[in-house]
Structure formats: C-alpha cells, structure tokens
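Bug #2210: token dump truncated for Antitoxin?
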Amino acid sequence: MTITTLSSRELNQDVSRAKKAAQNGPVFITDRGKPAHVLLSMEEYQRLTHQRRNIADALAMPDVADIEFEPQQVTIEPQSAGF
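Reproduced locally. Full output below:
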C-alpha cells in the first residue's frame, strides 16, 4: 500500500492523478499543510466500513442501463384469518 499526500491545489490541478493514486492506497489531501481529507477507492472504503453493495444501491447508481433486472411477478391472494 502506498500513501500519497497532495495539497488541495495539487488535487484541483490533477484530479485524475489523485484517483489513480487512490487505487494503490489512501491519498491524504492537505489544507495549508495540515491533513484535511482522505481519498480512498470504493473497494477500500467498503472494506473499512464492512459495507456490501446491494441491489438498491446498484440500481441507484448512474449508468446502470446495462444491468438486466427483471424480477419475477408475484401474485398475492388474500386469505381469511380462520379465527
């Protein structure tokens, strides 16, 4: 794992560099020389927070038109309580 440190100015000038660096480890972003933020890859964030991606999250993401999702239709019939 590689730790990268960028100033806010460096981040603003080259966001793609920060995103590439985040694939290899955390990117510390500084404001006036002090660490202020951390950029992580989504995989690393999910690993740290123990989050798993669910179908609702996946469908809420942009560019999901290529995901096929056709749930089976279910018919629910009312039944008497039988007291």
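Output looks complete on our side. The longest strand covers residues 34-39. Marking as cannot-reproduce; reopen if the truncation happens again.
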